[in-house]
Design goal:
The complex is a heterodimer. By secondary structure, chain A is mainly alpha-helical. Chain A has one domain (about 25-150). Chain A has 8 helices and no strands. The model of chain A has no long low-confidence stretch (mean pLDDT about 95). Chain B is mainly alpha-helical. Chain B has 2 domains: about 1-35; about 40-135, no CATH class. Chain B is about 70% helix and about 0% strand. In chain B, α5 runs antiparallel to α7 (about 115-135). Classes of the chains: A mainly alpha, B mainly alpha. The interface between A and B is medium-sized, with 11 and 14 residues.
Chain lengths: ~150, ~130
């Protein structure tokens, strides 16, 4: 019993000390001209899905949950957002070349239809982000139409 | 005499059938038609791919992930969109140094790309993608 108390106390102290370390959360930015949803005409239902299930890692408008302000979960969230933005950032959509756009659209289609995205860990923390079949087909159709438009 | 004519007719028929077969075979040869549809690999690029990428990104590759992501033999036969997307990914992993994977290079140092090979392959992929976008 004494050991449990000591371990708990040590853990709490470590947790408190950790809070003095930088959280390293990627910065949020206001919507700019390069943002997908400000530059292009995107169907409303697509915007809604992207916002609800993708933007927390793939845009500069992240809704950081409370635990992202607590170290060490802050570091995990920060890492996911940094990596997510690196692969695909809907806020930099307007800066992508046509080749980059096709690459990203093709990957979106693949990741979403295989169920690889949104990440299981993200869905665990945000159950509403899970895409149902209809939402998947809306995204797939959007990517197909978009690619077709580029290749026209 | 009649026997001789018969023989000639049969021989001619045989040769015609053989020729027809060869022509039909040519038309159905998927490799030929694929090559006509899309780009071909220039010799120097093919050599780099064969020596450095093919060990994983071909039917003989052991990693299912690697085969799922890219099969160099299948690339010319994919849809235009998939070809561009694949080339885009090739350029990205060459630029950020993700390929060849360090794990593979550690076991097999020959798989490392020289700077020259890297930029040759990268520039070829960029040109091929640009041509597809024209």
């Amino acid at each position: 019993m004494k050991a449990v108390k000591i371990i708990s106390a040590v853990l709490i102290i470590i947790l408190i000390i950790l809070q003095f370390f930088p959280k390293r959360l990627p910065e949020n930015l206001p919507l700019g001209p390069s943002d997908l949803i400000s530059g292009e005409s995107v169907p409303g239902e697509v915007v809604e899905i992207l916002r609800n299930s993708c933007f927390d890692c793939h845009s500069n408008q992240v809704h950081y949950p409370w635990y992202s302000y607590v170290v060490p979960t802050a570091w995990l969230v920060g890492k996911d957002v940094r990596e997510g933005r690196g692969e695909l950032n809907f806020s930099e959509w307007g800066d992508y070349s046509l080749r980059n756009l096709i690459g990203r659209l093709d990957a979106i289609k693949e990741e979403v239809s295989s169920g690889a995205m949104p990440l299981p860990a993200y869905i665990f923390m945000h159950p509403k982000a899970k895409l149902d079949e209809e939402q998947v087909s809306i995204i797939v159709k959007w990517t197909d139409d978009y690619i077709e438009k580029i290749l026209e | 005499m009649a026997m001789k004519i018969m023989c000639i007719i049969i021989a001619a028929a045989g040769v015609s059938l053989l020729l027809l077969g060869v022509m039909a075979g040519k038309q159905n040869d998927p490799y030929t038609s694929l090559q006509e549809q899309a780009f071909t690999y220039p010799e120097n690029i093919k050599a780099i791919i064969d020596n450095k990428c093919y060990v994983c990104h071909s039917l003989k590759g052991e990693s299912e992930d690697a085969r799922d992501v890219l099969m160099w033999d299948d690339l010319p036969g994919l849809s235009k969109a998939r070809q561009i997307a694949s080339l885009d990914a090739v350029i990205e992993v060459l630029d950020n140094g993700m390929m060849p994977p360090q794990m593979v290079v550690k076991d097999n140092p020959d798989a490392q790309l020289t700077d020259e090979e890297r930029s040759l392959l990268r520039d070829w992929a960029e040109t091929a993608a640009d041509n597809l976008l024209k």
